[in-house]
Amino acid sequence: MYNVIGVIPARYASTRLPYKLTKNILGKPLLQWTWQSACSAHSLDKILIACDDSSLKEMAEGFGAEAVLTSSDHTSGTDRVAEAVSEIDARVVINIQADEPLIHPSVINTLAEEMLADSKLMMGTARKKIVEEDEINNPNVVKVVTDKDGYALYFSRFPIPYHREEVAQKQYDKHLGIYAYTKDFLYEFKNLPPSYLERAEKLEQLRALEAGYKIKVIESQFDSWGVDTEEDLKHVEKILSERGCA
Fold first, then answer.
1. Rounded Cα gap, residues 161 and 203, in angstroms
2. Partner of 180 for a Cys bridge, out of 81, 116, 124, 218, CB 3.0 to 4.6 A?
3. Structure confidence by residue, pLDDT tens digits, 167-184
């Protein structure tokens, strides 16, 4: 049995930025950068790229990844992850977003360690304090609020909490797009019907909250950045170049 398996669900024909996972960043496809970050996380016993297209699988295997071909009919990354690990014995499954090449290995490690340390946890994710003002009102940057024990109260594309009166210091937390599940709960979550809040915000994790399940949210000092546009691609390339990555 594996303690922790990392899965990168990879969809070939994305809507907003077609074929974005194959886009070149400093000589490597975007997907390879995400995979390399995941490979640097010591907590992962195995890493899979779950592809929906044979050409994407071939590309992944070409840069050394272990890849599996999954159904092209899945409507979410969660469904693709669930298919990829269906025959694998594992305690915890971590869903690593394919279009986030800046995901820091420490985020993966901390999330894995939290899930393994507490047998009551069924689902976890991560957050980081927002420091860039323009991210607060950006609907593509999901915000999260938590209770005193670090469990999610709500996720929204809207700035939360709403400050009815001016305060000296406002704090907003950005939700980082990574999820951990016990393998059993992964299938329980996948089989829940889409919820009202999920459909309203277009945020799948709200399905779990609305059904009454708890999501532990670890705090990270490291940011990530999802690539959905050509501008995002340039932004990520700039950061990787500044870091001297190759």
1. 17
2. 124
3. 778 899 999 999 999 999
Q: What is the chain's alpha carbon radius of gyration, rounded to the nearest angstrom?
A: 17
Residue ranges of the chain whose pLDDT lies below 70: 246
Buried b (16+ CB within 10 A) or exposed e, 61-74: eeeebebbebeeeb
Total domains, the chain: 1
pLDDT per residue as tens digits for the range 142-164? 999 999 999 999 999 999 999 88
CATH of the domain at 107: 3.90.550.10
Please say whether the beta carbons of 11 and 52 come within 8 A: yes
Q: Which helix (H) or strand (E) holds 231?
A: helix 230-242
Q: pTM here? A: 0.94
Cα–Cα dist 29/89, whole Å: 30
